[in-house]
Design brief:
The protein is elongated, with a radius of gyration of 26 Å. The protein has two domains: about 45 residues; about 35 residues, no CATH class. Helices cover about 65% and strands about 0% of the residues. The two termini are about 50 Å apart. By secondary structure, the chain is an all-alpha fold. The relative contact order is 0.05. The longest helix is centred in the middle third of the chain and has 21 residues.
């Protein structure tokens, strides 16, 4: 039995020039215009999400980050007080 795939519809008004460009690009790749547009939109969405979620560090920053993980600094007095308050609150629950 085939698996049902849910779909949604997307509509957009575009200029006739853009429509012609998309149609030509799809033809050049041997795709339907729908396949071409869906693939392009998927790629653009993945790129936008990656840009928002992936942190890129310089080599120096990577080394600094790794060093902080391997040898974390001692907690400051303020951080120690915060942990003590947190522990007290958790015991009170």
């Amino acid at each position: 039995m085939p698996i049902a795939i849910s779909t949604a519809r997307l509509e957009a008004r575009i200029s006739t020039d853009l429509h012609s460009m998309l149609k030509r690009a799809a033809e050049l790749q041997g795709r339907t215009m729908t396949d071409f547009v869906v693939a392009a939109v998927r790629d653009a969405a993945q790129h936008a999400i990656e840009q928002a979620e992936v942190i890129r560090l310089s080599l120096a920053d990577q080394k600094c980050f790794a060093q902080a993980l391997l040898s974390p600094p001692q907690p400051s007095p303020a951080l120690q007080r915060a942990f003590a308050r947190r522990s007290k609150l958790l015991r009170a629950e």
